[in-house]
Structures are given as structure tokens and as C-alpha cells.
Amino acid sequence: MILEVERLKVESDAARTLTALDEISFAIAPGEVLAWWESGAGKSITGLAVIRLLEAAGAHRLGRGAAGGRRIDNCRTRSCGALRGRKIGVIFQDR
User: Closest Cα partner for 64 from 74, 55, 56?
Assistant: First the structure.
């Protein structure tokens, strides 16, 4: 698998009372495409959570993720930074 996400949950406030994503799971194999197009479906939040860019904004992220067979949900800041842009990235819609 190119990307696997299991039980991704994002709670966006310190009290953990506002849930932005509630335990979503998906896998993308080589040659496959995953698409969401509904407004407000959680595309941007999912991308930010998968590459671990939400923690700085105070959101809490739970779940398991792997990119190219390598766990990315438990990587340290430096090793996550080495993956971003080289192995994994997000292209957000332009408004």
C-alpha cells in the first residue's frame, strides 16, 4: 500500500469536545486514486492529520498510519519532516 490510515480521529479543542474526524479508515494501493469532493467532507483536515501538521495547532490526533509500509503515526518531528515533500505530501484545493 502507498498509504494506509486506520481509525483516524481528530479532536480540535483542548477539552476534546469538538470532533473534526471520527475514526475514518482507508488504504490507497499503487495505481489507485482516492477522491473526496463534497465541501466540508474533511479533505484538508485528513491531509494535515496524516502528515502530522495538526499538533502545532492544538488538535489531538489518534489512529494509525503508514506510508509505503513505514509507520508515520508515531514518528518524531525530525523523522516526520524528512518524509514530508520527499515521500508524502498534500496538495490542497486552491480557492
Answer: 74
pTM over 0.70? The answer is yes
Q: Could you give the C-alpha distances from 16 to 48, 51, 58, in angstroms and in order?
A: 18, 20, 10
Domain ranges in the chain?
3-83
Kindly state the cell numbers that stand for 84.
514530508
Q: From first to last of the 95 residues of the chain, give the pLDDT tens digit.
A: 888 999 888 887 666 667 888 888 999 999 998 888 788 788 888 888 887 777 656 566 768 888 888 888 777 767 677 777 777 777 766 65
CB atoms within 10 A of CB 81: 13
